[in-house]
Amino acid sequence: MDGRGRLLVGLVVVLVLAMLLGAIVVLVKLVRARRLLKDAGLPRSGKVTFWAAVAYLVCPVDLLPDPIYLDDIGVLMLALRSLHKAAAAAAERRESDLYRPPGRQRW
């Protein structure tokens, strides 16, 4: 193998290792997100929307070809937006439960 071949193989190895490291980081963040979603008291629909968006990101079938990540970004942004609204509503419910006198029912 000449110098160019070794350089190309070295570059491929570095790229594969970088992708593997990136995948491990994303996996750790997803596990942490799962724990946070489990403990947050959010409705099931918000959680399902988030995980469906994550599944769409890793799915090999896209609305637009892969070099164009606009559909992936759009799906993830919509899921995060709905998750944010659900989290705000859950926080509001928890806050109103804290200030309600004992024995009174929530409407």
TrEMBL record:
<feature type="domain" description="DUF1232">
    <location>
        <begin position="47"/>
        <end position="78"/>
    </location>
</feature>
<dbReference type="Pfam" id="PF06803">
    <property type="entry name" value="DUF1232"/>
</dbReference>
<dbReference type="GO" id="GO:0012505">
    <property type="term" value="C:endomembrane system"/>
</dbReference>
<feature type="transmembrane region" description="Helical">
    <location>
        <begin position="6"/>
        <end position="28"/>
    </location>
</feature>
<keyword id="KW-0472">Membrane</keyword>
<keyword id="KW-1133">Transmembrane helix</keyword>
<dbReference type="InterPro" id="IPR010652">
    <property type="entry name" value="DUF1232"/>
</dbReference>
<protein>
    <recommendedName>
        <fullName>DUF1232 domain-containing protein</fullName>
    </recommendedName>
</protein>
<keyword id="KW-0812">Transmembrane</keyword>
